[in-house]
């Protein structure tokens, strides 16, 4: 679904999420693996495996697997259960991030009122004149 609106904030394209059952089952299975890995990491940490010769590397590997599994869970959730939405944004030129007008690219005198307006507009770029 797309709209022809070109004003700021209009939804340009909206594609609903697929919400497949296989992805939901995959997320549940990965969550169970995550719980087992976290339990195993806590058990090894409490048991004092970090003080042994290879225990510290083993704990690091388990913690790495925990975060990799979490990354797969989040990636699968984002791909299958979040809609694809594109909104119309205001396009700004490169110099508009710091200055309001192109003739102000060199700056203004520090003590002038115009300098304070430039600072206010740099902090709040959508400042209405």
Give a topology summary.
Layout (H helix, E strand, L loop, with lengths): L10 E5 L5 H27 L7 H27 L2 E4 L25 H11 L6
Antiparallel strand pairs: 1-2
Keywords: Membrane, Transmembrane, Transmembrane helix
Pfam families: DUF7318 (PF24002)
InterPro entries: DUF7318
Quick recap:
This protein is mainly alpha-helical and 129 residues long. The chain has 3 helices and 2 strands.
Number of strands: 2
Could you give the distance between the termini? 36 Å
Please work out how many helical segments DSSP would assign.
Answer: 3
How would a textbook summarize the main sheet? 2 strands, antiparallel
Mean pLDDT: 79
What Rg, in angstroms, do the CA atoms define?
26 Å
What is the helix fraction of residues, given as a range?
40-55%
Strand-residue fraction? 5-15%
């Amino acid at each position: 679904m797309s709209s022809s609106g070109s004003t700021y904030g209009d939804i340009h394209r909206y594609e609903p999420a697929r919400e497949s059952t296989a992805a939901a089952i995959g997320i549940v299975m990965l969550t169970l693996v995550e719980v087992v890995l976290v339990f195993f990491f806590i058990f090894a940490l409490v048991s004092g495996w970090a003080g042994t010769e290879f225990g510290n590397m083993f704990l690091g590997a388990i913690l790495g697997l925990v975060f990799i599994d979490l990354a797969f869970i989040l990636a699968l959730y984002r791909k299958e259960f979040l809609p694809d939405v594109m909104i119309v944004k205001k396009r700004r030129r490169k110099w508009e991030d710091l200055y309001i007008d192109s003739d102000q690219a060199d700056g203004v005198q520090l003590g002038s009122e115009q300098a304070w307006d430039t600072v206010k507009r740099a902090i709040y770029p959508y400042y209405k004149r």
